[in-house]
Amino acid sequence: MAGPLLQVRGVTKRFRGFTAVDSISFELPRGVICGLIGPNGAGKTTLFNTMAGLMKPDSGEVLLEEVQIHTRPPHRIFAEGLARTFQIPRPFPEMSVLENVMLVPNRQSGERFWNNWLRPGTVAREEREARRRAEDIIEFCGLTQVGRDQSGTLSGGQLKLLELARVLMADPKIILLDEPAAGVNPTLMLTLVDKIKELNARGYTFLIIEHNMDVVMSVCDPILVMAQGRLLYSGDPAGARRDPAVLDAYLGDLP
Amino acid sequence: MIGVVSYLVFFLILSLTFGVAVLGLNLQWGFTGLFNAGVAGFIAIGAYTMAILTGPSRDAVFGGFELPFVVGLAGAMIASGIGALFVGLATLKLRHEYLAVATFGIAVTIQLVCLNWEYLTGGTLGLIGIPNPTKAWAEGPLIQNSLYLAIVAIVVGLTIAALELIVKSPWGRMLKAIREDEVAAASLGKSPERVRLEAFVLGCMIMGLSGALYVSFIGYVSPWDFLPILTFQIWTMLIVGGSANNRGALLGALIVWGVWTMSGFVLSRVVPSEIQARGGAMQAVLIGLILVVTLLIRPRGLIGEELQVSRHARS
């Protein structure tokens, strides 16, 4: 399909007097890994929340494949193909890793309770299929060893991978990752970077909030820089290093 | 000996009848995390519907359609379900204790309606002469009660089978996900509103079924059967037996009803007759004590939840 995958047009979100996201506009083509960076409190997560439907923007609009999505509830936005992970992982702690992942696919027959009475064969067949796919994705994310464990017992890094595994299960059009590398040990972080690159090569589009500049500079292009709710820069990573506004707001503080 | 057996049959009928209501609450609280504090109200709707549909016709009171027992059961479930649909649409945006307060108020309102809408409910006197189908099948109370116990056991069996099919399924997985983290579930494409409403309505239908079984056995229905203490008893049964486990729910019903009736028996022997009425309060205290002790030493109840939700995800 022609045209950008994602369009964000003049999105503004205020909390009482405070403007957390201030008329942000950008477009993402299919197949990119876009980095969203900025100092703490720049409004990155709030922007994610408005895109994913957790909050409604006060003005502006979000379009996925030229369809307005910002007016819909979160579960509908997810069904449209925009998936997000959380900065602090939100597993279903008393469910196994496998079922955390098997939960995800949309329109499972067995999600209509009556189908479990009336069409048990169909439900069982879909569940076998879902389980096979879930096990593949769990393996891809390196979680096979803990697949049967209660997800509440996983380490922080494993939970990040579980968040990724869950959204992959839905085969979304765009994946929003909120600080995937934060609090993850260096080895696991390299794994995560590799996974993201590999998924991108398979055609997945990413928008990633990340503070780790090594991660950003090695995988992201283009990048967006936010500060105090505004978009300071959008373009290639090299350009961001030379942009005076960006240097002043953010990169300048880094060694 | 006959006395013991017939008492045991009587006891099992009542505790399994309550057990059905506990199964309904288990779907709401155990599996979905809905704090329904209005259990008695939905049991009452089922009970009165049964009485109106199957009871004898009488002057100045609506109903008395003398319909078959099975029609009464189905009607009771449908009536409680419709009631729950309205209540659910109005209140399910509320969380936890707010939902509890709202449903508690609704149950009290339902009880007051039963008490005062004489044309529909017979008012304070209630409705009498509700037929027990086993009376037509056999002679003698023991055989009749044994037959009724069989009916109740079949209803319990069917209810558990139906519930197990839906809670150990992708639908049950959604219930659990929404219970554990609603925001995450919504972000993964699940509609908390839809799923909560479904669990609430289905649970209340099962409570209505329980009420219908109760009146058909007792033979009359009175507004005094649906005071908040009933909600409290059903809740204790669920907590003691174990939330999110249907076998636990049934076990809790047997244990708590056992304690309730035995303590009533002991109190009636021990406590002097002039303060008998206050002895009844001791029963409520005892149930409260069991509830607190369970929460302290075994907060997940006697039989807890299983890790795997969907039966299709077992190894």
Number of domains of chain B: 1
Number of strands of chain A: 10
Q: Look up the CATH topology of the largest domain in chain A.
A: Rossmann fold
| Beta-strand content bin of chain A | 15-25%
> Domains counted in the coordinates of chain A: how many?
2
Q: What oligomeric arrangement do these chains adopt?
A: heterodimer
Distance between the termini of chain A: 42 Å
Characterise the protein shown here.
The complex is a heterodimer of chains A (255) and B (315). With 255 residues, chain A is α/β, with parallel strands linked by helices. Chain A is 38% helix and 23% strand. Chain A has two domains: 6-89 and 159-253, P-loop containing nucleotide triphosphate hydrolases (Rossmann fold, 3-Layer(aba) Sandwich), CATH 3.40.50; 92-153, no CATH class. In chain A, helix 5 packs across helix 6 (156-169). The model of chain A has no long low-confidence stretch (mean pLDDT 89). Chain B is mostly helical and 315 residues long. Helix content of chain B is 72%, strand content 1%. The chains are: A alpha/beta (255), B mainly alpha (315). The interface between A and B is large, with 44 and 32 residues.
Strand and helix layout:
The complex is a heterodimer of chains A (255) and B (315).
Chain A: E1 6-15, E2 18-28, E3 33-37, H1 44-52, E4 59-64, E5 67-68, H2 74-80, E6 82-84, H3 97-102, H4 115-118, H5 120-140, H6 156-169, E7 174-178, H7 186-201, E8 205-209, H8 213-219, E9 223-227, E10 230-235, H9 237-242, H10 244-249
Helix pairs in contact in A: 5-6
Chain B: H1 2-31, H2 39-54, H3 69-91, H4 96-116, H5 118-121, E1 127-128, H6 141-167, H7 170-180, H8 182-187, H9 192-218, E2 220-221, H10 228-241, H11 246-270, H12 276-297
Antiparallel strand pairs in B: 1-2
